Amino acid sequence: MEISVLQAFLIGIVYYLGINGTPWLTCMGSTIIQKPLVSGLIVGIILGDPLAGAIIGAAINLPFIAYISAGGAPPTDPGLAGTLGTALALAAGVSPAVAITIAVPLGLLGTIIWVVHMTVDVFFVHMIDKCALNGDMKKACFLHVVPPQIIAFIIGVIPVALGCYYGAGVVSNIIATLDGTPLKVLEVIGGILPAIGIAMNLRAISKPGILLWFILGFVVTVYLGLTTMPVAIIAGIVAYLYTGLTANAATVSAADDDF
Amino acid sequence: MEISVLQAFLIGIVYYLGINGTPWLTCMGSTIIQKPLVSGLIVGIILGDPLAGAIIGAAINLPFIAYISAGGAPPTDPGLAGTLGTALALAAGVSPAVAITIAVPLGLLGTIIWVVHMTVDVFFVHMIDKCALNGDMKKACFLHVVPPQIIAFIIGVIPVALGCYYGAGVVSNIIATLDGTPLKVLEVIGGILPAIGIAMNLRAISKPGILLWFILGFVVTVYLGLTTMPVAIIAGIVAYLYTGLTANAATVSAADDDF
Amino acid sequence: MEISVLQAFLIGIVYYLGINGTPWLTCMGSTIIQKPLVSGLIVGIILGDPLAGAIIGAAINLPFIAYISAGGAPPTDPGLAGTLGTALALAAGVSPAVAITIAVPLGLLGTIIWVVHMTVDVFFVHMIDKCALNGDMKKACFLHVVPPQIIAFIIGVIPVALGCYYGAGVVSNIIATLDGTPLKVLEVIGGILPAIGIAMNLRAISKPGILLWFILGFVVTVYLGLTTMPVAIIAGIVAYLYTGLTANAATVSAADDDF
Amino acid sequence: MLPQYLQLMMTFNNKGENINMENKVSLSKKDVLSAFWKWTFFSHANYNYERLQASGVLFSMSHLPKKLYPGDEKAQKAFMQRHMQFYNTEPHFGGIINGMVLSMEEARANGADIPDDAINSVKTGLMGPFAGIGDTLWQGTLQPILLAVGIGIASAGNMLGAAVFGVTEAIIMLTIAYIMYMRGYKTGKEGVQAILSGGKMKQLIAAASIMGATVLGSLTASYVKAQSTMNIPLGQAQLSLQTDILDKLFKGMIPLGITLLTLYLLKDKQLKSTTVMGILVIIGIILGVTGIVG
Amino acid sequence: MLPQYLQLMMTFNNKGENINMENKVSLSKKDVLSAFWKWTFFSHANYNYERLQASGVLFSMSHLPKKLYPGDEKAQKAFMQRHMQFYNTEPHFGGIINGMVLSMEEARANGADIPDDAINSVKTGLMGPFAGIGDTLWQGTLQPILLAVGIGIASAGNMLGAAVFGVTEAIIMLTIAYIMYMRGYKTGKEGVQAILSGGKMKQLIAAASIMGATVLGSLTASYVKAQSTMNIPLGQAQLSLQTDILDKLFKGMIPLGITLLTLYLLKDKQLKSTTVMGILVIIGIILGVTGIVG
Amino acid sequence: MLPQYLQLMMTFNNKGENINMENKVSLSKKDVLSAFWKWTFFSHANYNYERLQASGVLFSMSHLPKKLYPGDEKAQKAFMQRHMQFYNTEPHFGGIINGMVLSMEEARANGADIPDDAINSVKTGLMGPFAGIGDTLWQGTLQPILLAVGIGIASAGNMLGAAVFGVTEAIIMLTIAYIMYMRGYKTGKEGVQAILSGGKMKQLIAAASIMGATVLGSLTASYVKAQSTMNIPLGQAQLSLQTDILDKLFKGMIPLGITLLTLYLLKDKQLKSTTVMGILVIIGIILGVTGIVG
Ligand SMILES: OC[C@H]1O[C@H](O)[C@@H](O)[C@@H](O)[C@@H]1O
Ligand SMILES: OC[C@H]1O[C@H](O)[C@@H](O)[C@@H](O)[C@@H]1O
Ligand SMILES: OC[C@H]1O[C@H](O)[C@@H](O)[C@@H](O)[C@@H]1O
What we know:
The complex is a heterohexamer, with three copies of chain A (about 260 residues) and three copies of chain D (about 290 residues).
Chain A: H1 5-19, H2 26-34, H3 36-46, H4 50-61, H5 78-92, H6 96-103, H7 107-134, H8 137-166, H9 168-178, H10 181-192, H11 194-204, H12 210-224, H13 228-256
Helix pairs in contact in A: 1-2, 1-3, 1-5, 1-8, 3-4, 3-5, 4-5, 4-6, 5-6, 5-8, 7-8, 7-10, 8-9
Chain D: H1 2-19, H2 29-42, H3 54-60, H4 64-68, H5 73-82, H6 95-109, H7 116-155, H8 160-198, H9 201-223, E1 231-234, E2 237-240, H10 241-249, H11 253-268, H12 273-290
Antiparallel strand pairs in D: 1-2
Bound molecules: alpha-D-mannopyranose (MAN) (3 copies).
One alpha-D-mannopyranose sits at the interface of chains D and B.
């Protein structure tokens, strides 16, 4: 089977719909399309063989069944495996089992696209900051939706469309080019950028001594190997008791002033 | 060797004495008789061959040497293995090693008897609650000792006597009948009933905010995998320091009122 | 090759220099000489074959490359392996690989010497305590340096010199004699003596209630398996917050007194 | 308002101190011994899933109300209700708590200001640790050793093996039980006086309440058991309801949830505890039959 | 001086209570629904490494400033800046927080004394827990089950598999999202009034700040990642920079260090966040190229 | 009564602040250098199980008492006793503590109100962390690397291997030691002034005491060692005294018990420390010979 330019482009759009996070029902909507079970069927429809697409998509979805994206940190991306993987498998006319072996390694390219996307969007956030200073809500709304989606569209559609059109070879070339140091550096940067968000938030709730609680939360999490849930519960209780004591003293002193 | 009705009944009583928790030196006295080392000898005496009973009882006791009953949650019950097991082994005239393989599975029936016993006794507790409301101490004492022991006697003596008289077949039938869902449900109920006791106690020491400490104790125990001992030590120290701070504030305010 | 009395004595001194902790650049200086890489070369020079010494010393040093002495608790001692080991290997004319198998077991004797040394020095500390009572600084300085070093010299030089002169046989005899109960008792005593130092320090910072924090630190360390670092951080933060609350109350009461 | 309350308590306490130890009614040696023996013989007579040794505690002190509050029926009833609380400890070592409670009741009857909380907290706070200590020392240590000796003798064909085990254990454990109980009674007596005269009563009660509640939380984790063994099949793989879902949300949420529900029914909904037990039994049946728990 | 400050706050608060709930401007049902849908549709439209869902929060409430502060440009700008803070939660379950924030903004515009801190702290303190709850229940539980069903159907050659999965998940998750958001809005509304009239506002803000900061510390451990994979070769053996050196010094020192450095640059050095981002990018390049981290 | 005490301290402190920094006696550069070298050369000269580097600390400052308290014999003696406390750190990195102590002693001699507690707590609180940092960076990191290089050279038959290792390590470590010590002295100097003028001294002393005591508790767990290796044979099985019995009762009860006993003997029984050492030696012999510990 051969894939036409139009078909390749449409499959690229299916991929974009799976990673755009908008405007159809946010990450839920998009993560439905992102699943190979769904995108496989759609790719099958585009390529004229819905049933084959559904079967191959289901097969490719199997290793991604327990996929979780938490805190914006994705393990290998099922979206690419479901679109490009299904397309290449259908084109090659292979069995579902072989389709899996073709599709899974493609996940890595998905990670690259994701990292680029989340890094570029940082600029729009800063532009929205400026809008907030000027009170320009219209522009803020525009910046929130349009430019990030154009970016997502471009970096989502192009590689997938190219991959469909030129076949598996091109894809592995892209991965090979970026792989190694460039990708690693991207990941390192992606790993430390959340520090800005956290620091800005800390600055926002900053009171004398609040940093101590921050470090406490960090040390306890790291050294006792706790997850956020028990830390949040314990912190909530301790915070309530501690502020009760402070308030206690304050009430007393407030009462004093009545004399 | 054949076991007479009287002998079977007496062996049943030996079993009862091992689980009654009273009136001979509480669980200590009864757990002495409960040990196959001891009950084996007594069963031997009843069946007319004390020495054989002692030897077989000692053998059966071996796998139970590290048996601990903590918090009323018994692992398989050595009492049944020691009485019924010794009796069946003596009757069949088998070697001590074979006696062990006969006796150990019987422990499961013991667990059932224990669960029933501890569940039924709940009713007497509620009846004693009523006595407490009316100040009727005499009846409370009666209810504490007599009815629970009648129950224990019945559910203790009967199965063991029947087992002795009709042989191993009957025992496995009883286990098979109760096993599966009925036993599981009993265990589930037994697992959640202590919540009442704990909740009643919490209600008793209830002050504003005390629930927070309760949850803290729970979370810390569960997430840090601690036992009660270190939690108690840490809680004691923290409670002392915390109330010191509260008292501090209180003293200050008390002093204020002297003006 | 034969080792003369003088050579044996000099090699003993090399060993002493590696464990004396003074006066050349404290444990750093001495631990440089203590390394088989270094002491092997020096032993080689003493025995007239520096190159062979250097090569054998380097080989013997390999298994000690990750050696850490923390809190005065040494794993097997590289010093003895480097001096006596190199000497015996050179005398026997063996290959570097064989030298390692000769040298490593010697480490145990080094542990004995270390334990004796650290135990005996306790007496000098007590003598310096007396000087502190009398304000006699001169004697305190003398006691800090001279007598401990004489001891270290004696228990360091003699066994190594004897070992070099009489060969490997004597060394294993010494180990065999001390080994077993005497060594174990020394170790037990060494294990509990730091309690004095800690207790004296606790007595020094003693305030009402301070013992609770001490026990808290102990329990937390033992039960949560923490190292000193996180305990120190957490303790620092909690102490600051806790004393903030106390001070709070105090400030309030101080303010009261202004009325 | 808390400070005012505490101050009020303090004056209240002063009154207690004045009356302090006129010892209108003191327990005789025989009273104490009788309580000890009744505890040691009958602690487990009515052992049950809901309150474990509660009625054993009451039974052991059944002669006290009449003696301590002659003619005062209300106080006698209050005494009875006070000692029907959940209680569970290792009876021999934990007897020290019973001894302390005995002396606290004595002091209270003589006018000392010891609220229910104080007594409850002493019981709750200490029962867990002493259960741990006792079980370890007795069932985990002494008993295996004595059993090993006894089994050795019996296996060799000597009928004395059982006696060696039984008699030795009985003597040792009774001695320990006696010493612990009396020590508890004595400590309690001295402690109560020291505490009252020091005026630190309030803090100690508050601290004991906090410690007690925290330990109860810890005990909930050990005593209330409801683990799901359900597996959700996923193609070849399986998803465990307990470890893959519930534990990730909040470990122990079922036991804690059930305990908090029970507290809510008892305290806020003011249901009778028999009713609550009925509800729990139904919940247990549902959880067990559906296979969610078990 | 702290007490004085708190007292000052208290009088300030009293003023708030007097004005309390004249409800000059209240949000219509349509306003709330619009915020809900904009949140649910567009939370991730501009998802990024620096502030994650920040602009999604602002976008979802883009119709509020004009409505709540008609004519008051300063307040409108403040509103916009207030909601550009770092925010990240699981959007469906975490919508309860957005709902609460909506009602707090409403109350604030009506004169209630709700400082920025209070709103910030509610968001910060709750986003982590709800991310954990939501991810576990949805992606970790519901989704695998529905996927398993759908894959089963599709593998058997039935094209409906995808639809079964997709439609069921969409319905369930939208329902959950709606309930959570509305519940949050309602709770917030009631909560705010209860809190304000109780005069406990101060303590709750302080407590939420502490909880928020602690949770942020915990989140730093999960979100800021910088592990060294460098190995120092030692003859045959190897020394891992991360586990053998850094972890022994202080676990997580690189992420914590970088976060504290970032805070220092932003707060003490007053650098613009773009500048700080540039610095972090350079640090990232250096760490990545040298291979220290990665 | 605590508040009164603190207030008293506060007036006391004010006096300190007034006298503050007249700097009657200040340490010369030579004094500081001399202390540094004596510390770096002789810290381990009398290294022992009881107080480890205690006399090394005193020795390093042996020239101070006469200089700081000329003619005041009582103060000189107090100084000597003050610095015979248990001390153990990694000497090069931990020198920063010694430097801080030097400046605190200087400030104290000039009238600053720095009680023994403050100095003790600084030493106790920091020695552990710096031992950890230092051992890891030096013995765990730098040294293996340098050794690997040196061994490589020497194995190839080049005698310079030892020199390359030794000289490089000596230069690096001396540099570090110098920088740390001087940094500590400077920080201490600035810190002390800042603290005194801020009037926060009291809280800091109290906090340092608490931190110090907690860290001492933690150190007890690492330094005081008494593990039982005894096994009680039970037929075929074995019962480990340590893991099966003692650890279940209370982990680390022997070391903690011995330490508390020692404290009791020293503080409550007022025994001389030599006597206490004798007692500990006897205990050690008994534990070791019977095989209970070892
Ligand atoms: O972890 C919370 C949240 O983080 C990001 O927003 C995404 O990864 C979501 O899928 C996830 O639910
Ligand atoms: O755990 C304390 C205690 O609990 C129950 O009462 C029984 O299992 C006893 O054997 C045990 O000592
Ligand atoms: O652990 C700190 C310190 O303890 C002792 O002084 C010695 O073992 C040193 O080598 C070590 O650096």
